[in-house]
Write a structure and sequence with these properties.
The chain is of the alpha/beta class. About 40% of the residues lie in helices and about 20% in strands. The chain has helices at about 15-25, 40-50, 90-95, 100-120, 145-155, 170-175, 205-215; strands at about 35, 55-60, 60-65, 70-80, 85, 130-135, 160-170, 180-190. A hairpin with a 2-residue loop joins strand 3 and strand 4 (about 70-80).
């Protein structure tokens, strides 16, 4: 039983996952699979996967930060050459050059490769074709990272894509509603204190925590 109410912070990512799981359980999902964005989204996604008795896998996507303001997203990149989303307004206002964009893309693609090897080595990927694919993160700001992930996922042929996040701003929710079949958000907020301001515990996860969670959902481990 989750006691969380809109307007107060989530105790941690696990509580946020339980809140979303309760909302998702009411939807007519077909053979659902949970795809989490690492690292923080994996904790949220694990709670959802456990509640729905669904498999858990990863959607590997990386934010492209502005060179002098890495927390400000000028875009995002996912697995595959076509999985690139750029935010022209941020790029123009921040004065980011094409060379800086190319360097950021190369750097984050390398990190995706590293994470794929670290998290998924020896694990079979979960098929999504013809299934309800639930894409999970621990919060969304601009939505660039999520949009890059959706571009990758569409090519895998899911029956439907459901974006599920604990918190997101209203303008980003509207954008994602045009790119996903459903968007489930526990708390719509303008994020005055960032995503972390909606959690009591928003600690940075380590790779070991991610692999430990994945092990719980991997047969034979």
């Amino acid at each position: 039983m989750v006691s969380w109410r809109p307007g107060r912070p989530f105790r941690d990512r696990r509580e946020a996952g339980k809140v979303l799981a309760a909302k998702l359980a009411a939807l007519p999902l077909r053979d659902p699979v949970v795809l989490a964005l690492p690292r923080g989204g994996v904790v949220v996604g694990a709670e959802i996967a456990e509640a729905l008795r669904a498999p858990l896998d990863l959607l590997l996507v990386r934010k492209l930060g502005v060179p002098d303001q890495p927390e400000l997203a000028m875009g995002a990149v996912g697995e595959g050459e076509e999985a690139l989303v750029l935010n022209p307004d941020v790029i123009r206002l921040a004065g980011v050059s094409e060379r800086e964009i190319a360097e950021a893309v190369a750097r984050e693609r390398a990190e995706i490769v590293r994470r794929r090897e670290a998290y998924l080595a020896g694990r079979a990927r979960v098929p999504v074709s013809g299934r309800s694919a639930i894409v999970v993160d621990d919060g969304i700001a601009t939505g660039a990272t999520m949009r890059a992930g959706l571009a990758v996922l569409r090519r895998a042929g899911p029956l439907e894509i459901v974006v599920a996040v604990p918190v997101a701003p209203p303008d980003t929710v509207r954008v994602l509603e045009g790119e996903a079949d459903r968007v489930v958000v526990a708390q719509v907020s303008s994020l005055p204190f960032g995503i972390g301001g909606h959690y009591e515990d928003f600690h940075q996860l380590e790779d070991e925590e991610v692999t430990a969670i994945l092990d719980r959902f991997t047969p034979g481990r």
